[in-house]
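Structure first, sequence second, as always.
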């Protein structure tokens, strides 16, 4: 697992000149005034260092919160947006982005609360889109609307969220693994288990919850059913947040044959196992996957909305590793 610096001073937020308060305060007011999802200051891991140890990639993490991300990273996006609105030239000038600093400062992760985001290209082999029709390979794209807490009004891969602990007071190092957040985000976004995350139980207890354990046992603990790959690490160019670029590959036909009796709402008798529609996954698109070009085609705008930069990175890396991914299970 990554090393963990448990005690660290809270990172002060950045101030947008002329605004009436911290960026978090502004965003909370705008979202509540439009009846959008309430912003919750959930725990997140921040990245302090990226390390190579014994030829393997590792990280040093520390505790942080979602509001820290807003006031240290998303606020940089607001600075860019304001500069674009007011610019006189076709290219932004450094003096228009004083909070961002010089390009080399983007890699000084210790200087800001840079959270570890997780963007997952989910490939589902042998997925039944239409009952009675042959199964096919698909991947997921998610339209992030106005109610999404971050990355609004974009298309993105799914699931996508932050690397976060089940409970920050739990010392179990397993929850610091990227694998932990990937599988939790998948179950939460694709099978409506968001309420399980709010229980604030120890890591081992969480993985044995009735809403979680069947997915662990039937999918993610069976290497012939599912594999998870880290395809790269990246800095998101607008907010300078840190991002893990991940692929999830699942043989859906094998998952469908598993015993789902412990959670009957997931698989109804005589029906195939299917992604559940919920408030986070209500705008999912199942895109047919016939080759690497299928992934590259999704990088362009769809319905007038751009693809999130981290989503673009996932699609590009997925196309690059297509042969390895499609043979994984």
């Amino acid at each position: 697992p990554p090393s963990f610096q448990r005690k660290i001073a809270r990172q002060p937020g950045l101030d947008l000149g002329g605004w009436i308060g911290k960026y978090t305060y502004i965003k909370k007011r705008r979202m509540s005034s439009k009846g959008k999802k309430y912003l919750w200051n959930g725990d997140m891991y921040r990245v302090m260092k990226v390390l190579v140890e014994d030829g393997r990639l590792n990280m040093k993490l520390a505790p942080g919160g979602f509001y820290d991300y807003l006031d240290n990273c998303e606020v940089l996006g607001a600075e860019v947006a304001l500069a674009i609105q007011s610019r006189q030239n076709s290219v932004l000038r450094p003096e228009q982005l004083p909070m961002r600093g010089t390009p080399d400062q983007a890699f000084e992760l210790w200087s800001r609360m840079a959270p570890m985001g997780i963007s997952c290209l989910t490939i589902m082999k042998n997925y039944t889109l239409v009952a009675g029709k042959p199964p096919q390979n698909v991947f997921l794209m998610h339209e992030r609307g106005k109610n999404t807490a971050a990355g609004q009004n974009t298309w993105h891969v799914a699931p996508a969220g932050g690397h976060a602990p089940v409970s920050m007071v739990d010392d179990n190092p397993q929850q610091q693994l990227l694998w932990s957040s990937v599988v939790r985000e998948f179950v939460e976004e694709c099978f409506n288990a968001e309420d399980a995350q709010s229980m604030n139980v120890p890591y081992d207890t969480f993985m044995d919850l009735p809403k979680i354990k069947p997915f662990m046992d039937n999918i993610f603990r069976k290497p012939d059913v599912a594999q998870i790959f880290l395809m790269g690490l990246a800095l998101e160019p607008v907010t300078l947040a840190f991002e893990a670029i991940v692929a999830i590959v699942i043989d859906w036909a094998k998952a469908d044959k598993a015993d789902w009796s412990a959670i009957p709402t997931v698989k109804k008798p005589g029906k195939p196992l299917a992604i559940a529609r919920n408030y986070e996954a209500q705008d999912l698109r199942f895109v047919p996957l016939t080759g690497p070009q299928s992934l590259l085609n999704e990088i362009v705008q769809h319905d007038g909305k751009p693809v999130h930069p981290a989503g673009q990175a996932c699609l590009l890396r997925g196309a690059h590793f297509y042969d390895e991914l499609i043979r994984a299970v």
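Margin note: The beta strands are 3-4, 43-53, 56-65, 116-127, 136-144, 154-157, 160-162, 226-235, 242-251, 284-288.
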